[in-house]
Amino acid sequence: MIGLKQVEAMIKRRLPDAQVVVKDIKGGGDHLEALVVSAEFEGKTRVRQHQLVYSALQEALDSEAIHALALRTYTPQTWEMTQSAL
User: Fold this and answer.
1) Is the distance from CB of 15 to CB of 34 less than 8 angstroms?
2) Which of 20, 48, 49, 61 has the fewest C-beta atoms under 10 angstroms from its C-beta?
3) Which residue intervals of 1-86 are DSSP H helices?
């Protein structure tokens, strides 16, 4: 099992400017959800954004320390617009 703070740190190593929130979906520690906001996502497709996050977590995914990962990725601008809509 991998800790939520460890996952956050792994993402931030790859995307240093990122705001990251990681949650355990099922309570077992291996089905996670991550919200990642980074300027590095600017101009990239959603698929490419997710690939950047997955690349940060590749070792944990390969070892199945993380079995499932739901991602929500935003640029700072799209995150701001999303928050304004609420």
Assistant:
1) no
2) 48
3) 4-14, 46-56, 58-62, 76-85
Domain that holds residue 81: 4-85
pLDDT tens digits for range 4-39: 999 999 999 999 999 999 999 887 777 899 999 999
Tell me the CA distances in angstroms from 42 to 15, 25, 70, 76, 85, one per residue in order.
12, 28, 20, 9, 20
Overall number of domains in the chain: 1
Sheet holding 68-74, edge to edge: 19-24, 31-37, 68-74
Q: pTM value?
A: 0.91
Buried b (16+ CB within 10 A) or exposed e, 5-26: eebbebbbebbeebebebeeee
Cβ atoms of 74 and 82 within 8 Å: the answer is yes
CA distance 45 to 83: 20
